Amino acid sequence: MTTQFLIEQIRKKESFLCIGLDTDLDKVPNHLLKEEDPIFAFNKAIIDATHHLCVAYKPNLAFYEAYGIKGWRSLERTIEYLNMHFPEQFTIADAKRGDIGNTSTRYAKAFFEDLGFDSVTIAPYMGKDSVEPFLAFKDKHTILLALTSNKGAFDFQTKMVEGQELYKHVLETSKTYENSENLMYVVGATKAEYLKGIRSIIPNSFLLVPGVGAQGGSLEEVCKYGMTKDVGLLINSSRGIIYASEGVDFAEAAADKAKELQLHMRLALQHQ
Amino acid sequence: MTTQFLIEQIRKKESFLCIGLDTDLDKVPNHLLKEEDPIFAFNKAIIDATHHLCVAYKPNLAFYEAYGIKGWRSLERTIEYLNMHFPEQFTIADAKRGDIGNTSTRYAKAFFEDLGFDSVTIAPYMGKDSVEPFLAFKDKHTILLALTSNKGAFDFQTKMVEGQELYKHVLETSKTYENSENLMYVVGATKAEYLKGIRSIIPNSFLLVPGVGAQGGSLEEVCKYGMTKDVGLLINSSRGIIYASEGVDFAEAAADKAKELQLHMRLALQHQ
Question: Which residue among A99, A229, B73, B156 sits deepest, i.e. has the most Cβ atoms within 10 Å of its Cβ?
Fold first, then answer.
């Protein structure tokens, strides 16, 4: 998917919501457990109920790998379903991968070509030759971890490196990578006060912002400091939406929560 | 597996060799491609031919994920085969994972409990709460990326943070994590001159050293600066061993290459 198409979808739907499909069999409503593939059944119901309210879906791979081959089948079915029925959705493999060059190429092919995701999240620690293999794919997007929303972010990401925090150094350095126009960045919403500095380095790049909802970030603050003329934001919510209800009404409850966020986003876009 | 057991195996076999199972269908000998599961058939033959020469096997997950569900099945069969027939082998899931707390827990369960690996490689960028969920598992080992052997290592890992390089800061910080006795570290052999500094921070921890062979590191240098009284080293070789021949003799050729390295290791242990 081109960035332009994503922006058009955001304008059309008045939403920059990404729904995280962190699907956990312990939290899936009981009545779905009798299905042949409860994880896919859950995802399908969530997607069917929410697709008009969001522009992106983000399965976190850990939740699928945790179930081994069965989990991979659920993941494959989910991305196939999205690509078949809702090709307008931007899909994110939240994998946080990163390896030496030829190995990163393997991951890139797996996520972009075989599974057909539009984007994948990548950890920056191993540097240029671990990231560039992902950037080489046309109209595919590499979402680099910059500043994450967890406490551990302060262990290394905010330490000073050559006069600026490591995450800013990651932003600066990544701009020099080949095909860096295919980069987006993960920026934790709970650090909204950092967004001004981030935008001074990457004024136009899309940011994937987790942590609105369960992790306590503020949507208003993120919009105020992070929004660009082309929006430039994807706000992710996972548990707050998909586990809004444990009952048979889980999909409608998810849609209600998504609608709440979408209305806030609509307002933010109107005041842009 | 306890660290003590691993040390005993190293002494018994006079080897601290780890064989990387980076199995690639493009490089597997032709006659295996007619097998139902060529990747597992290849791995099984390599393991059968080399297990007496090494103490560890390390499948890099990217090579398995690249083949989707089929690849996961090959991985599962490989680790099952190792745990069933060669439980004395230390097994490493080279996954380079790392996510926020509850998600890291999912990965930890998948690799340690469901697949039954002894250890997993982890990227440090997200800090404490992304690493500690792995450390919580008794007699399981978390191998943290410190200094990798690729060129991109110089992008961030060697930058100065509070008076020392980032990778040293990672070493120091990780020592404060709960259950840090379950930590090992990835240290690229091509940076053997760095080993002295690393040993001043972590004098006893095991180091997993890639890059001997295809990536050009020197075994002698690694032993000189990296070895501890309990050895404290696992030297990995992947392509240099498993692709030593493309013919029907691939397993014997792999054993020959492994034997070469084992003899060097035996010497290093005798001169310890």
Answer: A99
